[in-house]
Specification:
By secondary structure, this protein is α/β, with parallel strands linked by helices. It has a single domain, classed as Ribonuclease Z/Hydroxyacylglutathione hydrolase-like (Metallo-beta-lactamase, Chain A, 4-Layer Sandwich), CATH 3.60.15.10. It is 29% helix and 27% strand. It has a 7-stranded mixed β-sheet with strand order 6-5-4-3-2-1-14, with helices on one face. Strand 3, helix 1 and strand 4 form a beta-alpha-beta unit. The longest helix has 12 residues. It is globular, with a radius of gyration of 17 Å. It binds zinc ion (2 copies). One zinc ion (ZN) binds next to helix 2. The site of one zinc ion (ZN) has 5 residues, from loops.
């Protein structure tokens, strides 16, 4: 499995917003700027067939219309694209098309065979395009439901979340977890360095910090912890 961290930053930083690409064909979240970052890093956005959305904050969904329009207008491959996300994700994508004043949503949706899978249970297991995807509810303040994802029991992505059972389950069942580490000290919306250190020790698993604020990034870089990685945008590894 090839994993690329397209973005590792919180929104008000110079870093790309948190986003993870797997085997160039499955992506977790599509924040502001994703399409541009994929093109800049020589990925072919049209290879993406599965979009996993953790929750509906702008820094996780803003580029969905731009991505769909790009594949439709410029590449013209009528892929089957699946968008998996919390209950209401289909209406939210329609709202984005309306807000951006794009009028060809229906044509695009039909041409690309866009299929939405909406989640509402605590846990879901979905098999798609050869991937075993486990969606697990996490805790992101009033933004409900929010999900983390485990892919093939190898890679976990927590999405935005405070420390909770869902996050622990993701870490326990993944070889590597890409985890929200926005803060110095975690709260009910985001984890902090304190939470990540605790989890890395408890499960003795690799954690890659993401959704980092700049001050958190600098502080975390000083920690010498073999289980916690702080990486730059574009970082890739194979597992
Ligand atoms: Zn959020
Ligand atoms: Zn966020």
């Amino acid at each position: 499995m090839k994993v690329q961290l397209v973005g590792t930053g919180a929104i008000y930083t110079k870093y790309n917003s948190a986003c993870t690409l797997i085997n160039q064909e499955l992506i977790v979240d599509m924040p502001n700027g994703t399409l541009k970052q994929l093109l800049k890093s020589n990925n072919n956005p049209e290879k993406i067939k599965t979009i996993l959305i953790t929750h509906m904050h702008g820094d996780h969904i803003a580029d969905i219309p731009f991505f769909l329009k790009y594949v439709y207008n410029y590449i013209k491959i009528n892929n089957e694209i699946a968008i998996i996300g919390p209950k209401g994700i289909e209406d939210k994508v329609i709202e984005l098309f309306t807000a951006y004043r794009f009028e060809d949503r229906e044509e695009i949706q039909e041409f690309l065979n866009v299929k939405f899978i909406e989640l509402k249970e605590k846990e879901h297991e979905i098999e798609l395009e050869g991937y075993k995807i486990k969606a697990i509810q996490v805790s992101h303040g009033e933004e409900k439901p929010a999900y983390g994802y485990n892919i093939n029991n190898i890679v976990g992505c927590t999405g935005d979340s405070g420390i909770c059972n869902g996050v622990e389950k993701l870490i326990e069942n993944s070889k590597v977890t890409i985890a929200d580490t926005s803060l110095r000290e975690g709260d009910h919306c985001h984890m902090g360095i304190d939470n990540i250190k605790y989890l890395a020790k408890k499960y003795d698993k690799q954690i890659i910090a993401t959704h980092l604020r700049d001050t958190t990034r600098e502080e975390l870089k000083k920690e010498e912890n073999r289980n916690i990685l702080v990486v730059e945008d574009g970082y890739q590894f194979e597992i």
